[in-house]
Amino acid sequence: MAPKQVTAIKAAVFVLALVPFARLVWLTLTGALVEPLQFITRSTGDWTLYFLCITLAVTPLRRLSKWNWLLKVRRMVGLFAFFYALLHFTTFLWFDHFFDVAEMLKDVARRPFILVGFIAFVLLVPLAVTSTNAMVRRLGGKRWQWLHRLIYVIAPLGVLHFWWMKAAKHDLNQPMLFVAIVAVLLALRAWWAWQKQTPARAGVAQR
Amino acid sequence: MLIKRSPNGIDLPFSSEITPRAVFENRRAFIRQIAAGSIAGGALLEMLSREAFAQGAKAKLPAQRNAAYSAQDKLTALHDATHYNNFYEFGTDKSDPAENAGTLRPRPWTVSIEGEVKKPMTLDLDALLKLAPLEERVYRLRCVEGWSMVIPWIGYSFSEIIKRVEPTGNAKYVEFISLADRKQMPGVNSRVLDWPYTEGLRLDEANHPLALLTLGMYGETLPNQNGAPVRLVVPWKYGFKSAKSIVKIRFVRDMPRTSWNRSAPSEYGFYSNVNPNVDHPRWSQATERRIGEDSFLSRKRKTPMFNGYDVASLYTGMDLKKNF
């Protein structure tokens, strides 16, 4: 794919990824929501999970479709996951605790589902910080890649956070869908890793 | 003044006292929806008509305000009180009841009152409306999820019912059972709770004058999504203790297993009094957000014990941390 086309795709993804945010701002400003604070908390959480899933889907999709250009938008999609996670965390700190950090930390320690979400958020921070080309160079490709495999931990933690929040109300349709999606996306990787190893172990020449 | 017969047949002889505020809020809500609709596009018309349907069967329900039982707090806008609801029989999202409750038929309706009583009875809606003088009472409503509203309910103390059915000495608790009709209530097809929705009070709690058998709000009969045609309101307890769309009331010896208590006993106790000192396992109960009033710029307000109602004497000697 030509560089121009990649740039166009990147621009389109960027705009699309901002639609949920624009919608949220619009609904809030027009007064269409009865309880905007809860809506903002919920929808930023939802979109964090969507973007985590999309990020995880890039590699399998690329392997199956051979669309290599997909790799070029992955970092941006991942950054949008962080963007929505940051909004989600800010709503918690703002609406629930009114920037009382001591109160917030108490809450994080006391309530496991918040703690799990908080850990997932904290783990996202180094990934966001090292998302620039300069950081890739500084770390070296291999180390950078290892660091960014943290996503394999972050996504399940995010889903667990959502599951726990919904669990007591026995309303698990949505969380189960996320578990299924993340499980498939991670299982594919495990399968490919295992396949790559097996022939080597059996001594079969690959190339 | 022209007194019109309402479509659902409630015909009261005295002229109605419409709160101008409610009318005003309605109009503003409509304008707000139009604004929101400019991006919702074609869905708007359908949404508005469905909402109109959900609230459709309302009729004026005049009542004198009982100042002794009315909070001085600012009223929650009618639109907010009817579009942010927990009523799982119509779906688990807050907006579901307003969208889906149009299928509920609040008339004809009967409530059977039975169990450990000398005079069991089955009352239809007209009998319920005439059973005792209707009062308007402004109560604070505190949801277990940490939000609150202030609603002008219309009804009379549940003790009026107790007086008439004459409980026997065996009656220790009262069980309230809601309608669970798959045809009228789409949410009943899901398994989020064991249907029918069941709630309960200790007999002395039910007999407290604040416990309101409720037939209306904001000067009108109850909108479907708020528990039409008859519900309970127990203002010192979390909202879910107040069963909606009640079809059966049983006076019983043993503490009833309530829906939420069965579903998650560690999170929803039988008493569920509003108590800032007992956290929900997943969030603090110390503070709350008043819907429509508190915004981005306000710190959450402190929740008072028993939601600010003077009912401590009902629980003398009880450990409310254990009996949450």
From TrEMBL, chain A:
<feature type="transmembrane region" description="Helical">
    <location>
        <begin position="76"/>
        <end position="95"/>
    </location>
</feature>
<comment type="similarity">
    <text>Belongs to the MsrQ family.</text>
</comment>
<dbReference type="GO" id="GO:0046872">
    <property type="term" value="F:metal ion binding"/>
</dbReference>
<dbReference type="InterPro" id="IPR022837">
    <property type="entry name" value="MsrQ-like"/>
</dbReference>
<dbReference type="GO" id="GO:0009055">
    <property type="term" value="F:electron transfer activity"/>
</dbReference>
<feature type="transmembrane region" description="Helical">
    <location>
        <begin position="47"/>
        <end position="64"/>
    </location>
</feature>
<keyword id="KW-0408">Iron</keyword>
<keyword id="KW-0812">Transmembrane</keyword>
<feature type="transmembrane region" description="Helical">
    <location>
        <begin position="146"/>
        <end position="164"/>
    </location>
</feature>
<keyword id="KW-0349">Heme</keyword>
<keyword id="KW-1133">Transmembrane helix</keyword>
<dbReference type="GO" id="GO:0010181">
    <property type="term" value="F:FMN binding"/>
</dbReference>
<feature type="transmembrane region" description="Helical">
    <location>
        <begin position="115"/>
        <end position="134"/>
    </location>
</feature>
<keyword id="KW-1003">Cell membrane</keyword>
<keyword id="KW-0288">FMN</keyword>
<dbReference type="GO" id="GO:0030091">
    <property type="term" value="P:protein repair"/>
</dbReference>
<comment type="function">
    <text>Part of the MsrPQ system that repairs oxidized periplasmic proteins containing methionine sulfoxide residues (Met-O), using respiratory chain electrons. Thus protects these proteins from oxidative-stress damage caused by reactive species of oxygen and chlorine generated by the host defense mechanisms. MsrPQ is essential for the maintenance of envelope integrity under bleach stress, rescuing a wide series of structurally unrelated periplasmic proteins from methionine oxidation.</text>
</comment>
<keyword id="KW-0249">Electron transport</keyword>
<comment type="subunit">
    <text>Heterodimer of a catalytic subunit (MsrP) and a heme-binding subunit (MsrQ).</text>
</comment>
<dbReference type="Pfam" id="PF01794">
    <property type="entry name" value="Ferric_reduct"/>
</dbReference>
<feature type="domain" description="Ferric oxidoreductase">
    <location>
        <begin position="45"/>
        <end position="158"/>
    </location>
</feature>
<protein>
    <recommendedName>
        <fullName>Protein-methionine-sulfoxide reductase heme-binding subunit MsrQ</fullName>
    </recommendedName>
</protein>
UniProtKB/TrEMBL annotation, chain B:
<dbReference type="InterPro" id="IPR000572">
    <property type="entry name" value="OxRdtase_Mopterin-bd_dom"/>
</dbReference>
<comment type="subunit">
    <text>Heterodimer of a catalytic subunit (MsrP) and a heme-binding subunit (MsrQ).</text>
</comment>
<keyword id="KW-0560">Oxidoreductase</keyword>
<feature type="binding site">
    <location>
        <position position="231"/>
    </location>
    <ligand>
        <name>Mo-molybdopterin</name>
    </ligand>
</feature>
<protein>
    <recommendedName>
        <fullName>Protein-methionine-sulfoxide reductase catalytic subunit MsrP</fullName>
        <ecNumber>1.8.5.-</ecNumber>
    </recommendedName>
</protein>
<comment type="function">
    <text>Part of the MsrPQ system that repairs oxidized periplasmic proteins containing methionine sulfoxide residues (Met-O), using respiratory chain electrons. Thus protects these proteins from oxidative-stress damage caused by reactive species of oxygen and chlorine generated by the host defense mechanisms. MsrPQ is essential for the maintenance of envelope integrity under bleach stress, rescuing a wide series of structurally unrelated periplasmic proteins from methionine oxidation.</text>
</comment>
<keyword id="KW-0732">Signal</keyword>
<feature type="domain" description="Oxidoreductase molybdopterin-binding">
    <location>
        <begin position="105"/>
        <end position="260"/>
    </location>
</feature>
<dbReference type="InterPro" id="IPR036374">
    <property type="entry name" value="OxRdtase_Mopterin-bd_sf"/>
</dbReference>
<dbReference type="Pfam" id="PF00174">
    <property type="entry name" value="Oxidored_molyb"/>
</dbReference>
<keyword id="KW-0479">Metal-binding</keyword>
<dbReference type="GO" id="GO:0016672">
    <property type="term" value="F:oxidoreductase activity, acting on a sulfur group of donors, quinone or similar compound as acceptor"/>
</dbReference>
<comment type="similarity">
    <text>Belongs to the MsrP family.</text>
</comment>
<feature type="binding site">
    <location>
        <position position="85"/>
    </location>
    <ligand>
        <name>Mo-molybdopterin</name>
    </ligand>
</feature>
<dbReference type="GO" id="GO:0043546">
    <property type="term" value="F:molybdopterin cofactor binding"/>
</dbReference>
<dbReference type="GO" id="GO:0030091">
    <property type="term" value="P:protein repair"/>
</dbReference>
<feature type="binding site">
    <location>
        <begin position="242"/>
        <end position="244"/>
    </location>
    <ligand>
        <name>Mo-molybdopterin</name>
    </ligand>
</feature>
<dbReference type="InterPro" id="IPR022867">
    <property type="entry name" value="MsrP"/>
</dbReference>
<dbReference type="GO" id="GO:0046872">
    <property type="term" value="F:metal ion binding"/>
</dbReference>
<feature type="binding site">
    <location>
        <begin position="88"/>
        <end position="89"/>
    </location>
    <ligand>
        <name>Mo-molybdopterin</name>
    </ligand>
</feature>
<feature type="binding site">
    <location>
        <position position="143"/>
    </location>
    <ligand>
        <name>Mo-molybdopterin</name>
    </ligand>
</feature>
<feature type="binding site">
    <location>
        <position position="226"/>
    </location>
    <ligand>
        <name>Mo-molybdopterin</name>
    </ligand>
</feature>
